Amino acid sequence: MIVAGFGFRSTATPESLRAALGACVATARPDAVATAADKARSDAFAGFAADLGLRIIPVDPDTLARQQTSTHSAASDAARGTGSVAEAAALAAAGSGARLLAPRVVSQDGMATCALAEGTDK
What we know:
single chain, alpha/beta
């Protein structure tokens, strides 16, 4: 299973999320999208996922903080206890043994980040 993980500001739009996904995805299409549990309920994220026909996997704060990320954002670390919410969400949602396919990229407007991970969970 391939999961696109996202981190985003509360003011991010579905367009910001699409731009981050577009910058991250080369040939692999994600099977699901993931983000921090409290962000998974945002209108922008829910609408974005629905438009793509992808299920949302919310990731709890403790699970996000346990993930080893390849990139580091001081803001993400301070707010969420992880170097990259996008990478941590993708890895956690893809399941044990998941590997990062693409490190986080930032949307052109700076409002969203996206990373891809692949795992064996369904």
